[in-house]
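Quick one:
INPUT:
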């Protein structure tokens, strides 16, 4: 093993083990650790044909005190359970989920980047079906697996603000669809808009609420927040994925004496924010320096919104970022008991 901790990105690294269990004939198998990342599945699996799949994303950190912290795994369990119930597939119990997360982290301990690197171990729980099936219905088997991979700190991420575009001609999810569940299909559906946006020089796509296209929903894989004065504002919408990072930021904002508003955000309100950010487990906060509004991604700009100096994270977002990461690395008191300490 020879990893350059300071140059990690969000890419696959082979680690020691993946931790797996299968649900068949009404019961879970015992949990096993496998050295190979390859899994064997039937080519008729409903996960391959019909997208019956959900996943999670969370992280483990090497703390300042030498202890390993996993951030809010109980929240990831709850969300995976809601995704599995939506798909109609069997989800492991909370105890089994948490045990397997801890086991995967422990078995891959040497892949948790050192504290000084500000990098972390990304944990990816995956729930699929391996069994053959042709009909479109919820499979009766499931396969649950936890994979881990060291990922970068995105050094300088706060000083490298995203340039976003409003997706006027695309939706990420349907009005009463699957947007609030962490299912793979939502990501497949955002790739086309993402490619179009990249061609036009954008690295963030901002989706509107699919019912009226009047309100902000979220980015393709991260939630939206805006800050004005002492207020943190984030969309209330049935089609937004409930981000655990966003939920944590809301709490930290309140703890810091800010007002938190979770409500519909009309597009025009973009003009009144002093700071805007994307938030999610991968980077906690990516500041957004510019958002362009256009009739279509390749069309002419009708209006541009600018935040800060276009490149750097604003002071209020930075404070929130530092608080969350401080809790994750054991530098700031974890007063809400968010971290599972190994
Ligand atoms: C996973 C995800 C997020 C971020 O959620 P976190 O729990 O903060 O990682 C935001 N939006 C979408 C669409 C997601 O899939």
């Amino acid at each position: 093993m020879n990893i350059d901790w300071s140059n990690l990105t969000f890419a696959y690294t082979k680690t020691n083990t993946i931790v797996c269990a299968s649900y068949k004939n009404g019961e879970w198998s015992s949990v096993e650790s496998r050295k190979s990342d390859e899994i064997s599945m039937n080519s008729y699996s409903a996960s391959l044909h019909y997208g019956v799949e959900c996943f999670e994303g969370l992280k483990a950190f090497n703390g300042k005190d030498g202890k390993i912290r996993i951030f809010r795994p109980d929240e990831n369990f709850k969300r995976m359970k809601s995704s599995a119930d939506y798909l109609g597939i069997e989800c492991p119990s909370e105890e089994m989920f948490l045990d397997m997360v801890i086991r995967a982290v422990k078995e891959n301990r040497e892949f948790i980047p050192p504290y000084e690197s500000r990098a972390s171990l990304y944990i990816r729980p995956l729930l699929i079906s391996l069994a053959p099936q042709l009909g479109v219905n919820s499979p009766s088997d499931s396969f649950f697996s936890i994979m881990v991979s060291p990922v970068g700190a995105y050094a300088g991420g706060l000083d490298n603000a995203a340039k976003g575009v409003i997706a006027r001609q695309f939706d990420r999810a349907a009005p009463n669809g699957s947007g609030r569940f962490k299912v793979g299909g939502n990501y497949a559906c955002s790739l086309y808009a993402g490619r179009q946006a990249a061609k036009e020089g954008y690295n963030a796509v901002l989706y509107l609420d699919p019912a009226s296209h009047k309100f902000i929903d979220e980015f393709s894989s991260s939630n939206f927040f805006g800050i004005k004065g002492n207020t943190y504002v984030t969309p209330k919408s049935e089609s937004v994925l409930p981000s655990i990072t966003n939920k944590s930021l809301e709490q930290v904002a309140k703890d810091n004496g800010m007002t938190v508003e979770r409500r519909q955000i009309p597009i025009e309100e973009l003009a009144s924010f002093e700071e805007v950010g994307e938030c999610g487990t991968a980077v906690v906060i990516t500041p957004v320096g510019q958002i362009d509004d256009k009739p279509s991604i390749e069309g002419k700009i009708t209006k541009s919104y600018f935040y800060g100096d276009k490149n750097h994270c604003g002071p209020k977002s930075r404070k929130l970022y530092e608080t969350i990461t401080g809790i994750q690395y054991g530098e700031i008191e974890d007063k809400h008991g968010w971290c599972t300490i190994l």
